[in-house]
Amino acid sequence: MRALTFTPDLSFETVPDPVPAPSQALVQVSAFSLNFGEIAFRSPDARPGHVPGWDAAGVVVQPAADGSGPAAGTRVVTFGWSGAWAELRAVDTAELAVVPGTVDLGQAAALPVAGVTALQAVRRLGPVAGRRVLVTGASGGVGRFAVQLAARAGAHVIASAGSPARAAGLPELGAAEIVIGPENLRGRVYGVLDNVGGPQLAQAFYRLEDDGVVMAIGRAAREATVIDFELAGTRSARGRIENFNVTAPFGADLAHLVGLLADGELDVRVGLRGPWDRAREAAEALLSRRVAGKAVLDVRRAS
User: Residue 259's pLDDT band (boundaries 50, 70, 90)?
Assistant: First the structure.
């Protein structure tokens, strides 16, 4: 089959078809999304023939041999820590969700890592109804989902973006306030969903209420975070930073997000979409922060 690999640059390669385990379905991939982390922080020592990619959606062509999961012909969205950037993907049935015919598979492909990360991070904050929650990197893939899901949970959402242009549309998603960087935030916040890291994480920490919490989700800044815990008058007495990591399996959370999408209650912003032949261009745009929302590539099977 045809697949994208890092050999060493992002390029096409012919690799063997995946052989599914008994609890895995074989999926013909229709579209996959790119994530900042899988490109910016990829291993420099990629194995020959290794197929990267976390998020993909498509159609089951071979159901799991153990009887778990959907039947052949079912449209699904899938997650795994590799294998998405190919014509075929073998995926654990606990890591997929059925996609109704009313939902575009490209939009569904944007959900797994970004959507589930945002969903689990909001849950991790605990009850947020009526509380001020700051989302940094709010115009990015995780950020846009975090704004919506925190607002759905009843939070007063403050969205931080890199520029007014990148903040466009965030009020419609549920942001009650917009700031250009957390250093411009007035007042304190109970929770922070930080997708940027570096100096922005420090600025967000300084603005916590007592007992507030920062969920350190992403490192888009690719810079170290330096915090002065003795900075008088600008820090929480008992605030903390939690190193957030998304947990698998994704199946149930994916089904929840697909349901919201199908009901028109979740907006999936696809800022870049095209054929997978444009993968290198899409990856460069994502790394240079020129994509608002998600980058989705459509797979065209070789004839």
Answer: very high
